[in-house]
Specification:
Number of strands: 2
Distance between the termini: 24 Å
Oligomer: single chain
Number of helices: 4
Number of domains: 1
């Protein structure tokens, strides 16, 4: 599972494009992507934690052996902002 905090900088068109590309990459690799905005994280961290727990409990993206799948760190880093 990948968890992403979406702050104000994610409204930038270039950043938003990288976000979409990164999400496509990790979901194609079999991961579940969760995104949370600042308001929810700051005002309702309990709801964020509950969503993460629920997703971990029922995450269909774990391998049959129960181990998480991995992605290439080099590829992941290619999505970072400059």
């Amino acid at each position: 599972m990948a968890v992403e905090y979406n702050g104000r900088d994610h409204l930038d068109p270039d950043r938003a494009r990288r976000d979409v590309e990164r999400e496509a990459y990790v979901t194609a690799a079999g991961w579940t992507m969760l995104r949370f905005g600042a308001y929810l994280i700051i005002r309702h961290p309990d709801l964020v934690a509950a969503r993460v727990r629920t997703t971990l409990r029922h995450d269909p993206t774990r391998s049959s052996a129960g181990q998480p799948r991995t992605v290439s760190p080099t590829r992941w880093n290619s999505f970072r902002s400059e």
